[in-house]
Amino acid sequence: MIVLGGLAGAILGGCSPTSTVSPEINRGADRSATFPDITARVGAATTQMSNDEAASISARLSALAANRQAGTISDADYQREVLELQALAANHGADTLKEIAK
After folding, report:
1. Whole-angstrom distance, CA of residue 86 vs CA of residue 92
2. Tens digits of residue pLDDT in 66-90
3. ∠ CA 48-54-57, rounded to 5°
4. Distance between CA atoms of 35 and 96, rounded to whole angstroms?
């Protein structure tokens, strides 16, 4: 009977509600008394590109490639379009982060 009492005490002792933080752990990391709200709605940081926007950009790129291949666009116009698209690619990340930070 003493063995069972000691075993029960050891098991129940592990379930105590008090939390001790190891000195090696940052005290701010001890969040044992708080629980996350898993029912809260989480929204996107910014809006997603619509299907229409994606189709528009795809059509623009396809037309540019077709015009280049057919020779119906001058090299200067082609290079201007390419530079515009490269600028969009280079700045898009920074612009999006600015919008998210608002």
Report:
1. 10
2. 998 999 988 899 899 889 888 888 8
3. 130
4. 32
* Domain membership of residue 63 as a residue range: 51-101
State the total domains in the chain. Answer: 1
d(CA 48, CA 44): 8
Residue 44 near residue 53, CB atoms below 8 Å: no
How far CA 57 is from CA of 1, 14, 54, 64, 86, in Å, comes to 78, 60, 5, 11, 13
State the pTM of this model.
0.43
CB 32 within 8 A of CB 19: yes
Q: What is the per-residue pLDDT across 6-26, written as a single tens digit (0 to 9) for each?
A: 555 555 555 555 556 566 666
63: in domain: yes
